[in-house]
Amino acid sequence: MQLEAILNKLGISSLNEMQEKVVESYQKDHDFILLSPTGSGKTLAFSLLILEQLKEIVREVQVLILVPTRELALQIEQVLRKVATGHKVTCAYGGHSTRIEKNEFKDAPGIIIGTPGRIKQHIEEGNFDPSGIHTLVLDEFDKSLELGFQQQMDFIIRHIPAIRSRILTSATMMDAIPPFTQIEEPILVDF
Question: What are the Cα distances from residue 124, in Å, to 9, 12, 40, 128, 154?
């Protein structure tokens, strides 16, 4: 889908400066770090990157987005349902029925958005196959670390064998990117 069509679907006339910089800087199959304040439009920015990564519609999970909160998961799900035409999008988070989520996974959504604890649980229970995931988004990574999700994120990353692109978003820069992320030579956009 062309950028103009995506923006029309979302009722947006143009990208903001940060989003334009992200689109210009992105290179397929490279790790990417986006530093920008909360509320600046990071969700749309990384959604555009995800659309570049998605293969044709196949029956496997291609993209996993880890977020620190249920509210953020639902917000991202709304955006992606509008723009990921033809690709099934599903959400998994604490407080939601694992049975319903497990049923959603049977049709192998192209994109799964979820909180680290719930995604870890689904991987442990074998509810979806992470082997086809090629793009991992760690959204609001700083907040995920603050909330104590490092062990869950580490577990999840170790169970995804074929990640080609990691997209990390954060409102603040860390002294160092934790090694468990396996991010190497990232493209950095700092707003």
Answer: 37, 40, 35, 9, 13
Confidence of residue 1 (pLDDT cuts 50, 70, 90): low
Q: What is the dihedral of CA 91, 93, 95, 99, to 10 degrees?
A: 60
**pLDDT-derived band of residue 36, with 50, 70 and 90 as boundaries?**
very high
pLDDT band at 129 (very low <50, low <70, confident <90, very high): very high
Q: Are 127 and 105 in contact (CB under 8 A)?
A: yes
Structure tokens at 174: 């860390």
117: closest CA among 46, 180, 69? Answer: 69
Query: CB atoms < 10 A from the CB of 180, how many?
Result: 14
Nearest to 158 by CA among 108, 113, 120: 120
Fold held by 3-190: Rossmann fold (3.40.50)
Return the CA Rg of the chain: 15
Question: Strand order in 187-190's β-sheet?
Answer: 89-92, 111-114, 63-66, 135-138, 165-170, 32-35, 187-190
Domain ranges, ordered by start, for the chain: 3-190
Answer whether 0.85 is exceeded by the pTM: yes
> Is 99:129 a contact under the CB 8 Å cutoff?
no
